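Support case: S-adenosylmethionine complex. Customer-provided input:
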Amino acid sequence: MQEHDFYNTSAKKRKKFYDDNWHKIIIHWVKWNQSFYKMVDLFIRISDSIIELWTWLWIVPKTIWYIWKDMISMDFSEEMLNIAKENCKEYKNITFKKWNINNIPYGDNLFDLVIKRLAPDNLKEISRILIPNWIFINFTNWEYDAIELKKLFNLPPHESINEFRTKLIDSNFDILYEWEFTFLEEYKDIDTLVKMLEIAPIIEDFYLNKEKYILVLEKLFKDNKSFFLTRHKYLTNARKKTI
Ligand SMILES: C[S@@+](CC[C@H](N)C(=O)[O-])C[C@H]1O[C@@H](n2cnc3c(N)ncnc32)[C@H](O)[C@@H]1O
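Agent response - structure generated as follows:
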């Protein structure tokens, strides 16, 4: 199954997870997303042309709709977009568009602000569509994110912050601000961990080989009362250079 099919087929499951757990998730997220949303709030207010990349269900547009600026939100999964459109139908300032990361369908130097949260990169494309001197806000999982699961299943870690910084600079950005932080998530039962792994792309083939992974996780919970997972996040504010 291709990545596109994975996102399309898991869209409804993801929506259900968020519907069922929204009240818990929002409190958890407000804590660790605060700096991201404060930064987004500030820059949206001074920007006129805004694009949010790889929107998923609705979380970024639904959290910042109140600023009431026109904004484009994109994703390549029609199923994700259908759910996002339905959830944001009262916010007429947000337009959803289906497109792929590799060629964003806009000309050069058009946007004041590009926002991307927990989604794939194409820094050259992002740099191309931004007006020189204007801003890219990126919030992402980082090097040690979910490291316990990566080690347990022998999976490669995320790229390092230094590798990402080099790519940003190569794509014609100056880094204005960065903030890196970690916290621990505690899982007290296997069901909650499995539900999270079904919707978060931490183990990419989890949905294909679920039984194999569950066997190992069951042993983990047999030997331990709870499982602590490191989350490692990184927030960047980068400005496109003028030349
Ligand atoms: C983890 S989710 C993004 C989360 C979302 N930005 C948020 O903050 O809630 C990743 C999203 O990227 C989209 N995506 C993955 N690969 C893509 C690609 N090549 N082009 C466009 N969208 C892509 C998926 O459909 C999915 O909705």
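Strands lie at 50-53, 71-75, 94-98, 111-117, 130-141, 173-187, 227-240.

Case will auto-close in a few days if no follow-up is received.
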